[in-house]
Amino acid sequence: MSPSEDVKKEPYLRIMDITKTFGDLVALNDISLDVNEGEFVCFLGPSGCGKTTLLRIIAGLEQQNVGKIFQRGEDISRLPPRDRDFGIVFQSYALFPNLTATQNIAYGLENRKTPKSEIKARVEELLALVGLPDVGHKYPSQLSGGQQQRIALARALATSPGLLLLDEPLSALDARVRISLRLEIKHLQEQLGVTTIFVTHDQEEALVMADRIVVMSQGIIEQVGSPEEIYRLPATSFVADFVGLMNFLPGTAGPGENQAQCGTVTLECDYPHGFPTGSPVVIAIRPEDVRVGDPNQKLSNTIPCHVDETIFLGSFYRLLTLMPDMSKPHLVAEVSNNRMRDLGIKPGSQILVHLPSPLIRIYPDGRELFQ
Amino acid sequence: MTTTSQSTPKTVLKDRTFYRKRVRQKVGAEGILRRILFLLIGLWIYIFLLGPLIRNFTRSLQDEKGLFIGLTNYVNYFSSPATSASLRHSLTISIISTVITVLLAFIYAYGLTRVTLPGRNLLNAIAMGPIFVPSLVQALAFIYMFGNNGIFTRILGINIHLYGPVGIVLSEVFYAFPHALIILMTALSLADARLYEAAESLNASNRRIFFTVTLPAVRYGLMSAAFVVFTLAITDFGAPKVVGGNYDVLATDIYNKVIGQQKFAMGATISTLLLIPAMIAFILDRIVQRRQVAQVTADVKPLGPKPHRPLVQTGMLIFCGLIALFIISVYLVVVVGAVTEFWPYNFSFTLKHFIPEVAGAHHGLGGLVFIINSLKLAFFTSLIGTVVVFSSAYLIEKSRGLKAPRLILYLLSITPLAVPGMVLGLSYLFTFNDPSHPFNFLYGTTAILVISTIFHYYTVPFLTATTALKQMDPEFESIGESLEMPFYRTFMRVTVPVALPALISIAMYFFLNAMVTISALVFLFVPGNEVASLGVMLLDDSGNTAQAMAMSLLILVTSLTVRTLFYFLTKGIQARTQAWTQR
């Protein structure tokens, strides 16, 4: 979070101590979060982490057991959905099949005694906004998945809500459409400046679209931060594992306060990790941060490794290497094609691997990571 | 720096008492409206279903003067084999009818779904015939065919002693056949072709495949069909009334006690006894159906009809052909019997039987009065029934929260299937004929006939509506709410148009059943509002069998006409909504 802003300005949406249970299952455990006006926030997590439940609670479609929600400073915790100010888009689109695209978009306007001519103008404006000026007369079944989702978006935006809620809106689309629609939604949101919450299990989607990502797991928030923070400085091993690829090496803390022991190798990180010497830890580094074949042996964190396997992935190679006296796990490194050729790396080669200390993260032991 | 909740243990909750004061959503104007509507549905079911059933049960614990006597009536009923014969008879004919019907219907269904028989659609259409006429019409036709003066009895010189168990079983098998067939055809056509491919690749013999693949796959279908046939047979009144002779079953026993001997308490007692097997069959059927649904996965490769060995092929064709021929001949007998001077002695053509001479035919319109009454009953039952059932199914299925009332109303809405028409009718008689009852004014009106018919056939339309609603995106309501649209507007604007095919089939179900029903109405009609199906019974009672036949023909023709009209209505709607239903 950027604290200086939070102090001077009240957040647009404040979620306080929300807990929700379904029978014995704890869907959300004491969640608190602030969302600023005009922000694009992604709730990211695996299925069952509670992200959709939190979205539905914000909408009033589910009711929290405990906790409060404020929108523009007003307590909306107990308001039914119709008294809250939001537009929503679902994964299934939920377009009314018996109404045309135009009628679908106009649906929310008809109830507000808006003159017909104004409704017509507004619908045309929205159709243009989502890039589908010519499909107004068509029924949902006559539109492609991507077009349907854009109409659903237009319908949600028709009444100019202060908050836009998107529940995995791209999951049902095929990959190509998904990627183009990502940026479209992002640009649309920037253009309108509407505060937006986007639920997804797709980390790439979250990284591309969000101003801020809220990573969730098992009903709690693991980390809140900008896409770069989430990727560069994962706060927990869960976040490190869920977002992007990550090497996890088992080890023990110490002897120094920013050192850890991995097999026979002592590794250094750039910050005091705070774990007592000898306690089991996990040392994490992204494959693309592993430097291979650095000639200067004197650098710390430099390890002679054995290349177990090379995997060709088009624009680069992935090396599965083993550290001295270790049979698993692999230390994975990514190496460009040129560098592979220059260094002549083949399965069975001995190479020097350097782990830059600023890019190393140390987490408490999590055995599930090695399975 | 980033915030984390790492310090919070993941699934440990705070102190229990902390969660007891839940944050509840405010109940807006719509919430109040919904609650009022729930209350109205509850009242509607209470006044016209639960209340009468309770009254019927308490009546069985009283003597004829209305004094509480505990279980004495039940003790009296079981005191001797003679007094308790009707229960034994009912169970006997129902079990025999069930075995025969399910066996015949299974072979027929197998022929239609698995074997490449010529004219499968025609065979299917013919088999559905018995749905369009009251069960007593078939019984009448059997009298014309196999009775003491029946045409087959005379030609072949064999008397099968129709009056009694033989006639009842024959009629029930005929009557229940299409119902069993529908269930079994569904079960057989849901089979997974891949299982058969696997079995064949393992060189299993046809017999082995049948016993290891086919039968296990349709076992729930077979059970469900058995429960349905059993229920139809044990609750049927029309056929035993016409061909039962002195062989009393529960339904005719109730009728004789109440209408013949005015023994109301005994009628209530026997009707409670009839309720028990019907309830058991209903509950078992619900359990079986739930299992069957769980068995069907989306990922099934459907199995179409395949050519079989010539012997099987020919045998199947002969079997199905004979059954279809028999069904057709029964209706031919109805048609010919209705326009014949004096069956089976004088086959000259006449229309005189269409002018019946019983009470109710006093408008000079002859049999048409009954038909007009029937159409009136069917129209209002269909209209009101469809509106009430669909709206209540919508409220129950598509409301947020309010779980307990929704579950209770759902369970109440599916119980009418377990209530035999005789029991319902008698319960209504006890309830609405009581001058102190606030709805006493309904007694003797067409309204009470309509309401009883709606409740008699409540469950199937309710389940049809629920299924149709479940198939709709659950977020329609969420979208409507987020756009501040009142739920009843979204209901009218989206739900109803999308569910129109289901609504039409519900309306048709109510209509056709109202045309042929009799069991609940025998206790509720008054001179002047007899419907055609009752007319058949009354005419037969008074010995005018030929006129009863003519009335039956009128019912058959009307039902088929209405069925055809509904068919074109459905086609028309499909054409109109084609734009948004195409994929």
Summarize the structure.
Chain A has 371 residues and is of the alpha+beta class. Chain A is 26% helix and 31% strand.
- What is the H/E order of chain B? HHHHHHHHHHHHHHEEHHHHHHHHHHH
Strand order of the largest sheet of chain B: 1-2
Shape of chain B: globular
Classify the fold: give the CATH topology of the largest domain in chain A. Answer: Rossmann fold
Q: Could you name the CATH class of the largest domain in chain A? A: Alpha Beta
How many DSSP-defined strands of chain B?
A: 2
* Chain pair sharing the greatest interface: A-B, 57 and 46 residues
CATH superfamily of the largest domain in chain B: MetI-like
**N-to-C CA distance of chain A:** 33 Å
Total domain count of chain B: 2
Treating each run of at least 4 consecutive H or I residues as one helix, how many helices of chain B? 25
Please report the number of helical segments of chain A.
10
Major sheet description of chain B: 2 strands, antiparallel
Query: How helical, in percent, are the residues of chain B?
Result: 55-70%
Mind describing the biggest β-sheet of chain A?
6 strands, mixed
CATH topology of the largest domain in chain B: MetI-like fold
Oligomer: heterodimer
Strand content of chain B: under 5%
- Flag low-confidence runs of chain B: 1-12
Q: Which structural category do the helix and sheet elements of chain B fall into?
A: mainly alpha
Give a structural overview.
The complex is a heterodimer of chains A (371) and B (583). Chain A has 371 residues and is α+β, with helices and mostly antiparallel strands. Chain A has 2 domains: 3-239, P-loop containing nucleotide triphosphate hydrolases (Rossmann fold), CATH 3.40.50.300; 245-370, OB fold (Dihydrolipoamide Acetyltransferase, E2P) (Beta Barrel). Chain A is 26% helix and 31% strand. In chain A, helix 3 packs parallel to helix 5 (145-157) and helix 4 crosses helix 5 (145-157). The radius of gyration of chain A is 25 Å and the shape is elongated. The model of chain A is unreliable at 1-6 (pLDDT under 50). With 583 residues, chain B is an all-alpha fold. Chain B has helices at residues 16-20, 29-59, 72-77, 85-114, 120-127, 135-146, 151-156, 165-189, 193-201, 206-235, 238-243, 250-260, 264-295, 310-338, 368-398, 403-414, 421-432, 446-456, 459-470, 475-482, 487-498, 500-516, 532-541, 545-576, 578-581; strands spanning 340-342, 346-349. In chain B, strands 1-2 form a two-stranded antiparallel sheet. In chain B, strand 1 and strand 2 (346-349) form a beta hairpin. Chain B is globular, with a radius of gyration of 27 Å. Classes of the chains: A alpha+beta (371), B mainly alpha (583). Chains A and B meet through strand 2, strand 4 and strand 10 of A and helix 20, helix 21 and helix 25 of B.
